[in-house]
Task: structure prediction
Amino acid sequence: MKIGLDSYCFHRYFGEWYEGLQEDSKIRWTILNFLDHAEALQAKGVSLESCFLNEDPNSILAIRTELENRNLEVVWAWGHPNGLCSGGNAHAVVECMKHIQIAQQIGAKVMRICAGSRRTRPISWSEHKIGLIKLLEPLVEQAAKHQVVLAIENHIDLLADELVELIECINSPWLGVCFDTANNLRMLEDPVEVARKLVPYTRATHIKDVTAQKGDPRTFAFWPSVPLGQGLIDLPQILQLLSDAKYDGILALEIDYLSPLHASKGEEHAVAESMEWLANQVNRNH
Result:
């Protein structure tokens, strides 16, 4: 397993923030700033959010060159914020097809995709499943042609059993899971039990910790991110499950909405703490 960093940790630096929960940082980074930061933290891999990057061929080639020069493994991440809209957006398939090609061009063997989000999840799982299978089947065919594995994130839109059922229905080596360690707690599922179900299919990760605040646990604001090891997720046990399953991909730190208790110190402090914690855990396991 390789310690890595998802560029979404610095979404405010790329010009995005959660309205009502965060404010503009007034800081702006380029992809080179992010790669410099990842390298300084001794990351061995990165997950690059495509929504923050220029997709023209020259830019993609330049990023690939930077990744190769820095010896960084890469996951290409598509679908923020709503992906395939839980099976309701056939037009998104065209965009996703394009990004499968970009993933190959940038040198990624895995591309994280979002089937939907908490905003797009239908009430009926049967309707949800049918819609997703219809959109995913041609995407998996395209992924096989380009030899890029699609990894569906549990994006607060799919319960663990639903995601397993979806993966098993399509039953392709070119489709797996991008396992976010915290998102299903936000759906009131036990994170370790979710890990036991999703780890066998995991091809990419978001290593995330969260805590609870006052309010409604059905809302996103109730579950802010915190530095790894300081929240409610039993990450040592989950990392052991990944190790036992011989997962050999990137352990990509992700921080989304940073807890107000940590926000005053900023993203860079929370990321540095988390990367140090993650390195210690991986070294201990080895």
Summary: The mean pLDDT is 97. The two ends are 10 Å apart (CA to CA). The first strand starts at residue 2 and ends at 6. Strands lie at 2-6, 45-49, 73-77, 110-113, 149-153, 175-180, 202-206, 209-210, 225-226, 250-253.
